[in-house]
Amino acid sequence: MADSRSYRGIEPWLGERVYVDPSSVLVGAVEVGNDSSIWPLVAARGDVNKIVIGERTNIQDGSVLHVTRKSPSLPEGHPLIIGDDVTVGHHVMLHGCRLGHRILVGMSATIMDGAVVEDDVIIGAGSLVPPSKVLESGYLYVGSPVQQKRPLTDKEREFLRVSASNYVALKDEYFIDVHPI
């Protein structure tokens, strides 16, 4: 079982059919939606704000998820909100940002506080999304800092759903191995 820790009496919450690798750590206000997966060595620390992960979303190996504290100048702080059917690649840093639905975040990308990624977006590997940047729906973004490269093709848009579905199927294989029927 994963390392699931309470913070100030708040426990992580898992939906139905969620797979969390035993080497991952979930702390505090972390909510994981149905059919989502958290892979090896992920750290999700919902201590000073909340982390919400949607349905059929996968957070891959070595990713770090964190938030920004509430303060007088920022009354809501920056929670981390991730939508449905999102693929977060290996070694990604998500900090106090909002991701819509059907997004692919490439390996080793960083998305910073207050950034908003609208639906149907691909972010290239190694990209840096600066604080408060808004990535418009339907585009490929690459670079450090990230720049809009071109509109997504129909094939790429379909791949966003396929990627999420593939991880649901993989998660189910792991789930059966860990929790035999």
Automatic annotation (TrEMBL):
Superkingdom classification of source: Bacteria
InterPro entries: LbH_gamma_CA-like (IPR047324), Transf_Hexapept/Carb_Anhydrase (IPR050484), Trimer_LpxA-like_sf (IPR011004)
Full protein name: Gamma carbonic anhydrase family protein
